[in-house]
Amino acid sequence: MQRYKCIISYDGTGFSGYQVQPKKRTIQSVFEGVLEKMHKGKQVRISGSGRTDAGVHAKEQVIHFDSPLAISTERWETALNSMLPEDISVLTVEKASDTFHSRFDAIGKEYRYVLSLAKKRDPFMRNYTYHYPYPLNISAIEEACQYLLGTHDFSSFCSARTGVEDKVRTIDTIEVTVNGEQLTFRFIGNGFLYNMVRILVGTLIEVGSGNRNPEELREILKSKDRQSAGITAPAQGLYLWKVFYD
Question: Active-site residues: which are they?
Answer without folding.
Answer: 53
